[in-house]
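[09:14] KT: can someone run the structure on this one? pasting the chain below
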Amino acid sequence: MERKTFFHLRFLLIFFLLICLNGCGKESKEGGILVYIQESGDFTVEDNGVHIRPGESAVFHLELPAGAHVTSVDYAGAYRLSSDGKRATLELKNVRYPVKVHVETSSIYHTIYYHPNGADGETVAVDYNTSLHPRPNTSIGTDLFSRDGYTLTGWNTAPDGSGTGIGLGSRVTLTEARTWEDETLPGREYEALPGRENTSAERGSTSLTGNGIGMHLFACWAMWTPDEAFVWERQEEQMILQSYVGEEGGNARVVIPEYVDGLPVRVIAASAFENCDVKEVILPKSLETVEEGAFSGCRMESLTLFDNLEQFSEASFAGCEELQTLHINAIEDPYGYRYRKESVYADKVDLLLCAQDQPRLIFYGGCSMWYNLDGKTVQERYGDQYAIINLGLNGTVNSLVQMEILGAFLQEGDVVFHTPELSSRLQLLLETDMGENDDKLWSGLEYNYDLFSLADIREIRGVFSSLQHYLQKKKPGGNYRQIYVDSNGRRYLDEVGSIPFERNVTSRELADEVRMDPKYLEDGLKRLSQMYQEYEKKGARVLVSYACVNMDAVPVEEQGNAAAMDERFRETMKAMDGPVLISRLQDYLYYYSDFYDTNFHLLSAAAKQNTEKWMRDLEGAFDQEEASVVRH
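[09:31] RB: done, structure tokens below
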């Protein structure tokens, strides 16, 4: 009886499906089953509705709009999907019953409309492929608009400059399109930009509607300070700014002209702004040299420069004690993705910015965090509670800059899990100067220079010399459309920012310095404590653990210091108000055979074990906090 009932139900189910499919205008052939793709406005199906025998495969050809791709196929069985960008082939395998399959598509192109906002020219629309980077780099602008007597200083989301500002070439968070009550805005045709991001012309479209999210950005213009506010010297076919004799005090703003008497301004001479009392200075994109002592003792608080500046140094801005903010506008193509893996830093910060609508569990440290946090393990453990972000980068570059950038985006409910490498004075914030080694950091910052404007450079020496060293290192051939891959074609970020590729064999001799010297901590960690306090003021919780230590690389005379180092670090952390040390150093000691290519990059198996230890300590800290809340 039960068997008959089962067959009756099965027959009714098949009959019902056939009726549904017939309602779509498709009829089943006798002896076969009908398979149908539910079409949407985003794509069409060539010869939709196929009749097959049970167990056969059903093949469909989907015509996709430019820039679109298939994101999901609602089919319970196995299927195969291939695409050449305009046409997708979908094979549903082993289909046994009539079925209507739902397919979803999404555009990987998003349109930004650039408006001249007072300059000559018309609105220009550029489409960006967001499968490369979730936050696209804006145009450098100099190939879009110019305006006599003004310097283009960036973009803004509002015509009057009251919205969000974005530096030239820096990254923007895409938002839904908005309508402006100005007939000169939407409605014009695309203008192709040869050699730059994918434009509508490259995609064969002339419509201004775009294929996805549209965003409007408006040019920001700074009017040049009048020529008579400066003393000029003509030298061959260029102008040299010898001194500033204009307005000073309070809110004085100086925008150095790009041209004077038709000649480009190339040089700012020594002492030109010595001891000047101005609040803001904007350098022109024509400038090549800022001589030593040019701004000596200047009381400016903000400086804007372009990254084609050739000659400048720390001595050019000596004694600028109040200079807090450095804005860098891109005017040259980036080099970082051709240079170092740390060039992915801006991509890591993008992960942070794209998750601002939820609590985040943020892991920060040197490359020992980048390599040794297994992203899949953490996602499975905490992915339903937090957005997981790995901001680990490199223990030999400036950490204060990175921590200030992180702090700018923290919010209530975030958890910061910090593992400072005890061998790195930079990670412990015992050193905060920038130097030539920060080429690695600049290689990432140049993909979003706006990030550097979040750092307070009053606390950091060596910024200008470090920046010049990197700019002189740059070579042509890079662009914003690239992603970083090594010589083996491996990407260096998974979905949370960790290293995704397997590391199974120690690849070369390990030569990095590893120390275990409690004397590092004798005077405490005042600057690190201040940073932690700033994080907690924003509502973030700070938990501190340890990075891995290769005991085989520690000097012989320091190899017995693990217990003393742990005790001293624990005492230092207890003296801080707020952050909690949740681990024991002795649990994070490893040996040569555990490491990949440096003394801080574990092999994959060891990295997974290390992640489990971090997760164990993290779980214990969460349990203690929960118990404390219950008690109170």
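[09:33] KT: thanks! Confidence is low (pLDDT under 50) at residues 1-7, 17-30, 181-212.
[09:34] RB: yep, looked fine to me
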